[in-house]
Amino acid sequence: MTNSGGPAIEVVDLAKAYGDSRNLVRAVDGVTFSVAEGEFFGILGPNGAGKTTTLEMIEGLRKPDAGTITLLGQSPWPRNPAVLPRIGVQLQSTAFFDRLTAREQIRTMASLYGVQPAVADEWLERVGLADKADTRVWDLSGGQAQRLSIACALVHDPEVVFLDEPTAALDPQARRNLWELLSGLTDSGRTVVLTTHYMDEAEVLCDRVAIVDHGRLLQLDSPANLVRGLDAPTRISVSPGQLTADEARAVPGVDDVDADAGSITLRTREPARVLTALAEQQHLAGISVQTGTLEDVFLSLTGREYRA
Ligand SMILES: Nc1ncnc2c1ncn2[C@@H]1O[C@H](COP(=O)(O)OP(=O)(O)OP(=O)(O)O)[C@@H](O)[C@H]1O
């Protein structure tokens, strides 16, 4: 079922506060954005930024204090049975029936939606858990449990899937393995909304990223545009044997030079000019080039280093 061309999600002036007047936490403080059909949309921010609260309101699990939400053309609140089968919500693994095996778990989820057991088994295969089908959920590794919870959210083939920090608490290798699975989720036109506090994850996976902090939306764009709009210097590192700090400063287009025992880093807003000069001087061996990152974007938006 399509949504007749409209956005999958539209959020206008959304607000939610917790606590009372003496101790009010504005968890979500006037947030507006929309998510296109088929988009991989990221909500990125440090702990407590309001990501989960935003997601729960869109999913219809929490009532907003103010603002409107349109999910697949309808209001998700009060709990809307017409929308529920069309969305998938990744449960945290603690919500599993942990005495069940992986196969029993996903087949149970499937049966709630009237989905055939064979389809559930296919999903185990697709997330790389076929060989863990008979393993009890509590014996799965962190990464395997996350895969199972993602498969459970997808088993009824929802049009929109919500993933709340799907790679939290995983080691870097397991996170990267999971990215492969996640990046394919929009292939068939499905819309994905993912929250994360990992900058690199948002950069790799998302078509667009909403950067949030203290309940407010600071910026919303594609990772490339966010970084491009930043006017952050490109950092070019060369090994110290290649040239001295003084020689580096003399390279045309270099703004600044950081020298330490391990390397010499040239900062420039004209990377092409600097790289051309380094090539002419035969200094390209062992070079590494680092452009701006979402971390730089966050720093320039908030004046603070990003701490997840
Ligand atoms: N049920 C609640 N009662 C009171 N305060 C809450 C409740 N849920 C969240 N908060 C507060 O609201 C703010 C936003 O929390 P939220 O969980 O939405 O942020 P988050 O960006 O998802 O953070 P995290 O990455 O840590 O999950 C935080 O200050 C949090 O302490």
Ions, cofactors and other ligands present here are: adenosine-5'-triphosphate
SS element count, helices: 10
Say what the CATH topology of the largest domain is.
Rossmann fold
Which structural class should the secondary elements be placed in? alpha/beta
Distance between the termini: 37 Å
Order of SSEs, N→C?
EEEHEEHHHEHEHEEHEHEEHEH
Report what the structure shows.
- It contains ten helices and 13 strands.
- With 308 residues, the protein is of the alpha/beta class.
- It has two domains: 9-228, P-loop containing nucleotide triphosphate hydrolases (Rossmann fold), CATH 3.40.50.300; 234-291, Alpha-Beta Plaits, CATH 3.30.70.
- The strands form three sheets. It has a six-stranded mixed beta sheet, sandwiched between helices. It has a four-stranded antiparallel beta sheet with strand order 11-12-10-13.
- Helix 2 packs across helix 3, helix 3 (117-126) packs across helix 4 (142-154) and helix 4 (142-154) runs parallel beside helix 5.
- The chain is globular and about 70 Å long.
- It starts with 8 loop residues before the first strand and ends in a 6-residue tail after the last helix.
- The structure holds adenosine-5'-triphosphate.
- Adenosine-5'-triphosphate binds next to strand 2 and helix 1.
